Amino acid sequence: MLQYILILKKGIYQKRKMKYAIIFPGQGAQEPGMGREIFENYPVARLAFEEADEALGFSLSDKIFNGTQEELGLTEITQPAVLTVSIAAFRALSYELGETPVPLCMAGHSLGEYTSLVASGVISLADGVRLVSRRGSLMQNAVPVGEGSMAAVLGLPLEEVFKICETVSNGEVVAPANINLPTQIVISGHTKAVNRVIDYITQHYTARTRLLKVSCPCHSSLLKDTADELEKEFAKVTGWSNPSCPIISNVSGKALYTVEDIKKALYKQIFSPVQWVDSVLEMERLGVENYIELGPGKILSSIVKKLCTGKTPIYGSTTGKIKEIANLIRS
């Protein structure tokens, strides 16, 4: 641990070369066995898994490395698992560089925003995994199983999706929840209302729709009470600090610099749409030259590549990828 702390302190004062952003994936990026290679090759990464296990009081590592897809898909397990693997990758990168990465800013998609808080020193890893595990449990229990769902709409602009949701809602909740691309929108709400949107689009448009394998209507107004409960969990964390770099908010798509603003954003994030398009545009406005996605999968890298002409994000959480990213930062 002392070695890692020294790496952190050294990195804070290094002069930034390439202006890059570090981005972290959210729920949906998980897969059994993720992070095993860096666990085996980097002591600082192994320490991240051990810290998470200790904080949660059970072996999250075992569920990540040996659990089934179904076990890993439980929301209260998925969220701390993805966060832990992402932070393990961040620490492995720090080790390769000999210093903490100094990005222009950080961002994460939904759950990934919490990962960015751990990476930027706002909260500890232990507090982070406890918070997102509790967040996952609250989200899963907010609406009875079967009464809430989400679906992707591909090929329609946001304004049109809004209109369709309003047209077929019939007094129930259904609205855009993730604005990932200008024509890649995820809707969320009551299951029957979500199904009506899908039927309407199928009948009137050539756009594609796809039900997501989730039972929680994430980022919808159905989770307002969940936000109130989660806010109580924030109060249990005593070590909040201002971030080492700006954090791009999912809710506003704007850069945040203080604990006060971050807490307000996290509260709203539970029941508000993820403004990922606006978040990337904000990072572009800040002068980001390239994007580094740390954690399982490459979902965000694929989205950023479509949004930013000429940008080629680099991603990964394997030893080879970590070394490649370190070389890119040093270049």
Provide structural commentary.
The chain has helices at 2-12, 36-41, 43-56, 60-66, 69-72, 75-97, 111-119, 125-141, 158-168, 191-204, 224-234, 259-269, 276-285, 299-307, 319-330; strands at 20-24, 105-108, 148-154, 174-181, 184-190, 208-211, 247-248, 255-256, 290-294, 314-316. With 331 residues, it is an alpha/beta fold. The strands form three sheets. It has a four-stranded parallel β-sheet, sandwiched between helices. Strands 4-5-3-6 form a four-stranded antiparallel β-sheet. The chain has a two-stranded antiparallel sheet with strand order 7-8. The radius of gyration is 19 Å and the shape is globular. The chain starts with a helix and ends with a helix. Residues 1-15 have low confidence and may be disordered.
